[in-house]
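Ligand: inosine-5'-diphosphate. Inputs:
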Amino acid sequence: FWPGRSTAGCRGIGQLQRQELQSIEDCRWPISAVYNHRMSLQRTLAIIKPDAVERKLAGRILQRIEDEGFRVRAMRRMALTQAQAEGFYAVHAARPFFASLTSFMASGPAIVLVLEAEDAIAKWRTLMGATDPAKADAGTLRKEFAESIERNATHGSDAPETAAVEIADRKS
Ligand code: IDP
Ligand code: MG
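Predicted complex:
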């Protein structure tokens, strides 16, 4: 409630047009409500892979996640079974590295996270860097923390569809 202001003549947040934002000052809606409406918050699934957990890098990676403005909406330490790892990476079943990749992912505990931010999927992939640490940009997590193209410290969903499936599956 803002004293001296009223909702008379104001439109609902859902009806608000982008170019009308200046006139919001005349209305009583809290600015946070307007801001949240404008942002397209998105969620992605991130994993701190077993190589990074084993080397005690989880804390440093989480610090980077928070420093970059992500909100941690869920976090769970999980030791994937071989079958779970194979299911998670089913899209790569025909690749020559599949057996090695899945046994690595089942080799020890991982930390599975749901991260939220504006444009979270692309933002997290940018922070991770290229799959192969040799090709990753300076300042990215994989450049800093990956041991190899396989043991590359982190996972991130690659599209809204895969993010939705990975987020839904993370509890099983
Ligand atoms: P991404 O994790 O950057 O999305 P993907 O191509 O989806 O990369 O590969 C999934 C995971 O498989 C990688 O993160 C990495 O752990 C592993 N991987 C990818 N390419 C290779 C490879 O050429 N050799 C060994 N492992 C690989
Ligand atoms: Mg991928």
